[in-house]
Amino acid sequence: MGCYSLGIIPVWLCADANNLGCEIGSLVSAGPWVFVGMLNAIKVFNIDTNAEYHLTRPVGLVYAITVERDVLFTGAQDGTIYAWKFNLESNSFQGPASLKGHEGAVVSLVVGANRLYSGSMDHNIKVWDIDTSQCFQTLNGHSAVVMTLLFWDQHLFSCSLDNTIKVWAASEDHNMEVIYTHNEEDGVLALCGALDAEAKPILLCSCNDNSIHLYELPSFSQRGRIYATQEIRSIHMGSGGLFFTGDEAGLVTVWKWMSESGSQKGNIGHFCIALLVQFHEQILHIWLP
């Protein structure tokens, strides 16, 4: 529950809780589907049908999950990307196919322009053809773990603990190359793209100085900062101009863009999807406004 200066008190209710009995490494929702990365497995829930699936094959903790059309991609601790295809006729997940090449754990995944991009603890980003599952380029511009990947407006954004955000674009030969590097004073943990109240593109950048830096694109001019008492490990967009931040203190904060400069926030509690992406809890909580 939180309070706003508008005189409105929003109430968020915990709709469900599941004790999975093991460490949670990642969490993604797509439509009615909820995908939970665990040790050596992925748990899948359909909140409309109450169907559950338990997918095994990954080695180690599953750090990253993304979904493109009917394919589920997961990045695991052993450096392998596992891909399952959902079959509507049999109502089951088929596979997985294995995409190998990283020498460290895969901690970030994103899909854009029919390509899968993977970031790893080996400091590299690999570019995969979704149709063939073949890696056709390795991007080695970072000198530390690639924490988050974001594909937005035909550009790939990557952030790393090397204190940089890099912007990549396709060249004439269709290979990705760095077109801009933004330097921070601290390591960069997470990225998220948003549109403000005037529909201007904003990049939200979480650093390990316990703050989020807001930059207007494409100029990277600073729009402001959000401060927390702990590292903000997760940023997620919601509907109606809302976005959510989850920090290491166990606090989830809901923010709303205002038409004038500044932001408006309300603290709502200790557990939700945004928090569980980063925290090693065994209980999955789903919150509804």
From TrEMBL:
UniProt entry tagged with the keyword Cell membrane: no
Record keywords, A-Z: Repeat, WD repeat
Q: Which InterPro entries match?
A: WD40/YVTN_repeat-like_dom_sf (IPR015943), WD40_PAC1 (IPR020472), WD40_repeat_CS (IPR019775), WD40_repeat_dom_sf (IPR036322), WD40_rpt (IPR001680), WDR86-like (IPR044715)
Start-end of the WD repeats? 99-138, 139-178
Which Pfam family, any one, appears in the UniProt record? WD40
Name this protein carries in UniProt: WD40 repeat
* Source species of the chain: Dillenia turbinata
